[in-house]
Amino acid sequence: MKHALGEFEEIVLLLVAAQHDQAYGLSITKAIEEKLDRSVTMSSVHTALYRLEEKGFVQSRVGGATSERGGRRKRFFVITALGKSALTESKEARNQLWNMIPEFVLKNI
After folding, report:
1. Quick one: which H or E segment has residue 60?
2. pLDDT digits (tens, 9 = 90+) for 2-15
3. Is 28 exposed, middle or buried (0-12, 13-18, 19+ CB in 10 A)?
4. CB contact set of 9 (below 8 Å; sequence gap of 6+)
5. pTM, whole model, 2 decimals?
6. At what angle do helices 42-55 and 25-36 cross, to 10 degrees?
7. pLDDT confidence of residue 106
8. CA neighbours within 13 Å on the CB side: how many for 31?
9. Radius of gyration of the chain (CA)
10. How many domains is the chain partitioned into structurally?
């Protein structure tokens, strides 16, 4: 694969894409916990986001300060063309592996 993604990076990148231009650390953390029933720390999500940004898979922008956040600003993330390509490659690779499994193996699960 040209654009290798780790499993957690892939999950974070999928959620950035799903949340479009409203993706930020807390929204992604909550989505992972709610949708995947998986406990994660905000710092692990931020680490993945910054790693994805270094790879060119996401871009970030800083939003306006809000009183509900004590004047702090949110950093929003959006997927880039390179990120879309990485997700497509990852999906195709997984589908190839799934398609290798004989039908009878997964029958009656």
Report:
1. strand 58-65
2. 778 999 999 999 99
3. buried
4. 48, 51, 52, 57
5. 0.87
6. 110
7. 87
8. 18
9. 16
10. 1
Predicted local confidence at residue 92, as pLDDT: 95
The pLDDT of residue 107: 87
CATH number where 33 lies? 1.10.10.10
pLDDT of residue 46: 97
The pLDDT of residue 64 is: 72
Q: What domain range includes position 46?
A: 7-105
Distances in Å between the alpha carbon of 37 and those of 27, 43, 55, 64, 107?
A: 15, 18, 27, 31, 25
Residue 2 lies inside a defined structural domain of this protein: no
Q: Which residue has the tokens 């990852």?
A: 90
Question: Which pLDDT does position 13 carry in this prediction?
Answer: 98
Phi, psi of 64, rounded to the nearest 5 degrees: -75, 155
* Residue 83, both tokens: 């990120």
Which positions of the chain have pLDDT values less than 50?
Answer: none
Contacts of 83 (CB under 8 A, 6+ apart): 13, 16, 17, 52, 56, 57, 58
